[in-house]
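Need tokens for this chain, all 114 residues.
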Amino acid sequence: MPVARGYDIPERDWKLFRQLQPIALERFCENVLSAIHDISRSNQSAHERYPLRVFKTVRDQDKELATLFNNPRRSNAWLQLSLIHSHELLTLEEMQRFSPETQQRVSELAKLRI
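Here are the structure tokens for all 114 residues:
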């Protein structure tokens, strides 16, 4: 099994991360669409719903999407995986597929952000 370079995620976990990333992305997008749906059904005026809430939600979530999913590299995979995990975009079973080393690193990074 190839050894990770420096702070890079191990090869096996990198491949799993790349496999699970589209699943997490789909869940993220579903969550955003669900939030927009909820906003659109509120009792607020159309003006309050669209430019004030929907647009802001999309803008904010687009920034979050970029942080979580753009430019995946082995050198930042632990951080992105930690963010994805903290947003509950992977199931416990999916997270348990990673090596104990990666699970520990993800957990440590999550504690640093609290």
